[in-house]
Amino acid sequence: ERFGLDLSTAYSKCMRGMEEVKIRDNRVTEAGKIIDEDNTRLSIQKGLYDDARAERNECCKKLRESEDEISSLKRKLKLMHHEIEELEEDVKAKDEAIMKECYQYNRISKSAA
C-alpha cells in the first residue's frame, strides 16, 4: 500500500512536471512567434530606413547640384551685367559721336548755303 501511495505521488509529480514542461514549451513557442513578428517588423523598418536614407542622399546630391548651378548662373549674370554696361557705354559714345557729326554736318550745310 505504501508503494502504491508513493507510486501515485510520483505519478502525480511526473504529470505536473510534464504539464509544466508543456506550458513552458507553449511559452517558448509563443515567445518565438513574437520574436519572429518583431524581426519581421524590424526588417520592414530597416527597409523603410534604408529607403529614407537613400532618398535623403539623393536630395542632398540634387541640392548640391542646384547650388552649383545657381552659383554658375550668378557668375554668368555678373558677366552679362558687366558686358551690358560696356555695351551701353559703347552705344552712348557712338550716339554722342553721331550727334557731333550731325551737328558739324548741319553747321557746314548752313554755312555752305
TrEMBL record:
> Keywords, A to Z?
Coiled coil
Question: Can the keyword Coiled coil be found in this entry's annotation?
Answer: yes
Q: Where is the Cilia- and flagella-associated protein 58 central coiled coil domain?
A: 10-111
Residues annotated as coiled-coil are 49-97
InterPro entries attached to this UniProt entry = CFAP58_CC
- What is the protein name given in its UniProt record? Cilia- and flagella-associated protein 58 central coiled coil domain-containing protein
Species per Swiss-Prot/TrEMBL record? Perkinsus olseni
